[in-house]
Amino acid sequence: MATDTKSKVGTGVGIAAILIWCLLPVAWIVSLSFKSQDAVTNGSPGFFPSSGGGAGFDNYQSVFQNDEFARSILNSIGISLIATVLSVIFATLAAYAIARLEFGAKTFVLTTALVIAMFPVVSLVGPLFDMWRTLGIYDSWLGLIIPYMSFTLPLAIWTLSAFFREIPWEMEQAAQVDGATSWQAFRKVIVPLAAPGVFTAAILTFFFAWNDFVFGISLTSTERARPIPAALSFFVGNDPFNRPASLLAAGAVVATVPIVIIVLFFQRKIVAGLTAGAVKG
Amino acid sequence: MTSVIANEAKSSSKAPKPPDSDRSRTENRLALKLVAPAIVLMLVVTAFPMLRALYLSLFSYSLTAPDDREFIGLSNYWTALTDQLFWRDTGNTVFIMIVTVVFELVIGFAFAMVMHKVIFARGTIRTSILVPYGVITVVSGFAWQFAFSNTNGFINSWLGWLPGIDADFSWFDKYSTSMIAIMASEIWKTTPFMSLLLLAGLAQVSEDMLEAAKVDGATWWQRLYKVILPNMRAAIMVAVLFRALDAYRIFDNIFVMTAGANGTESISFLTYRQVIEQFQLGIGSALSVLLFLSVLVVALVIVKLFRVNLADARQES
Q1: Cα separation, B264 vs B173, whole angstroms
Q2: Which ipTM did the prediction report?
């Protein structure tokens, strides 16, 4: 009995620790985004806005009125979505081959994917910078979509091949025996089984593209293609020596909201995908 | 690659007829067609630029004076490897890698143990654990930079009871405290990922074995060291390998929080600075090649040192 209560208390403390760990810095950045810019310039230490130092939603308004920032949100959404869709399509084809077909190059594909997942991206920045300028896709959506696809493919291929291996493919034949055409068998049996895996891979891919910073700052030079993380880091406001902390915080919150929404809705799928991709493969 | 073999066995038992060579040839061809786009895409953006970096690294080549490009053999490598800056930054990178991975492993394991035990509110906890994972690294960097700031932060007032820390304490004025701030951001963001990987490993430890150990009178520590840890060795090793290689590439946090001030530069940051800020493609390419080689070395050392067996880890649970 005594050890039972003790372990229950321990678990309770653990839960509290996890929640504080995960949410405190997020709460902090939200709180900071409500400090007024004047208060921040004069210095306003402390977790919460001091009395009279609050700004309401002013910072958020400024963020959305800032053309550069609004444009970078659009860039990020567009680039990440396109890269995700394309990457998942190619990864699905490859993962299907890996999970279902016998061919000699299977080990080669998996090893290549693994090596690329561990590649130091910064070492590519120089040559890509040079190549993209020659090809004329420097500072364009395409110039970012291509590297995002290459670097999300490994994760997507590993996750998807792990999912596809679990699918009972015999059901396709069973459906055909029962009189379904091969298209019906595919659409009514295989697609519903494979969809969750594809969806998970898409979420993880989107996270990667949304989070990228190295390519975002080195392969763009103007707001034409600059994604949110890069725009945030270059945003200096009116006074370059005193960064507008609360305005940046508001921008950061805006950049984080889409991710939090995705997490809230698809928590279970993301966990399954992360562990399948990395541990099970 | 156990699972590949297992898969082969599975599919051959599914189709017991003798392998029809014609059919297997078409299957092979179809498979190659399916993987080709992915392989091409992955190699176009990695292997090809890497070879180009290898080539450019043999030249004295600056984008500000592209016509003065000149073949100088291995001089760039010699310049880099004899420069103190290169070794200082490599030292920083290795230091950050070791410290962050150790912290992440310990805290992540504790989190995984808690999540494994929790029955109610599972969804809430997993949702919150994914938040740091989803937060953009740049945002995490800002959040921590402002938190540590002495004008607008809260860390100084919360840690005021520590000797040497008062309201005016400036974390970003010197090397040691800047590094603490950078590593705090890095550890905060990536520990949840680590804990999820460890949780998956924890789920593979058999409850029967734990129960048996308990009945035999093993203490909590004994169960942890003799039963749990040895049985999730593969998961731990994979988590360490993934995270260590990721930490070795640290760039975003340093860029945002200190921009390399007070000697807090990492090797990735040095490479970036040479190429993008100073347009030194020759020496920058040499640094790119060295960075790539050092990641390979780190990967090999970890695999050898801990005898990571990826095939083991990929076994289906």
Answers
A1: 11
A2: 0.84
